[in-house]
Design brief:
Layout lengths: L4 E4 L15 H12 L3 E5 L9 H4 L5 E4 L4 E4 L2 E5 L4 H13 L3 E5 L4 E3 L6 H13 L4 E3 L9 E5 L3 H10 L4 E6 L4 E6 L4 H12 L6 E5 L5 H6 L2 E4 L13 E2 L7 H8 L4
Parallel strand pairs: 1-2, 1-12, 2-3, 7-8, 12-13, 13-14
Antiparallel strand pairs: 3-4, 4-5, 6-7, 6-9, 9-11, 10-11
Helix pairs in contact: 1-8
């Protein structure tokens, strides 16, 4: 039997977009795939600092985190990149000057400004710091180290300024009708994470599967040999995938893995 490698997005793919948890059906399907000799990897825009115990408890073979900025297999980090402290300091000054809310995401820590401008960002901060018990600190932390960030520009002027000034350093993925930008160091994506792992594990491209639900999954869905959209996916990925499975809350992961004879 040839080993297949399956890459799973998190939010809306293995985590319910309704209750925020992983169903027993999804856990069993992933475990069954592994028992059948296949490899299961998370592939997410979240940094590793944002991966909770409910996800790690599933027992994935490894992680592509931060859109390819941190890649690991069986607990060994194969690749890691961070944004330089000089760039980070300049970025924070620009974000504050143009009154742009942002979440700066590192390998161990997530950083917020001390006074978020939007109540939405304040709620996100409180959820991560209190409900999810993640390691949350301030932009003013002396040891701030980040891999990527998300920003919510309130004005077109601010958006244009950041995108133009940093166009040679970052790639900007526009999400949520232009209200949210996922910002990643150039040369990194969910697809580059897959490419590195295929080389490291000596697995042919023909044995790759990717499962996601949103526009930020496009790089891995376009790169994988077999691409799968959840039934709850956004419209912009449905035309490019190999297969559309059921909703995440209707055994979508198990349905997809059965369709491809992985379980």
């Amino acid at each position: 039997m040839k080993t297949k490698i399956i890459f799973f997005d998190i939010d809306g793919t293995i985590l319910s977009h309704r209750n925020g948890h992983i169903s027993d059906s999804t856990k069993k399907a992933i475990k069954k795939a592994q028992a059948n000799g296949h490899l299961a990897f998370i592939n997410t825009c979240r940094t590793i600092a944002e991966i909770e115990g409910e996800i790690t408890d599933v027992g994935f073979d490894g992680y592509v985190c931060g859109c390819g900025t941190n890649i690991s297999h069986q607990g060994t980090v194969l690749y890691q990149t961070t944004i330089s402290k000089d760039i980070t300091k300049m970025l924070i000054n620009d974000l504050r000057s143009y009154q742009i809310d942002a979440v700066l995401e590192g390998t161990t820590t997530i950083y917020y400004d001390n006074q978020p401008l939007s109540p939405l960002i304040q709620r996100l901060h409180d959820s991560q710091a209190n409900d999810r018990n993640l390691n949350v600190r301030s932009w003013d932390d002396n040891d701030i180290t980040i891999d990527k960030f998300c920003m919510w520009p309130a004005t077109q002027e601010g958006s244009d300024y950041i995108c133009e000034k940093y166009k040679d350093i970052f790639d900007f993925i526009i999400r949520e009708n232009g209200l949210l930008f996922e910002v990643i160091p150039k040369g990194h994506s969910k697809a580059t994470g897959i490419e590195l792992l295929l080389s490291h594990l000596n697995i042919p491209h023909d044995n790759t599967y990717a499962i996601g639900d949103g526009a930020n999954d496009l790089p891995m869905l376009e790169y994988a040999k077999y691409s799968i959209a959840m039934g709850n996916s956004s419209e912009d990925i449905l035309d490019i995938v190999s297969f559309i499975t059921e909703d995440v809350d209707q055994d979508g992961i198990a349905h997809a893995l059965r369709h491809f004879s992985i379980i």
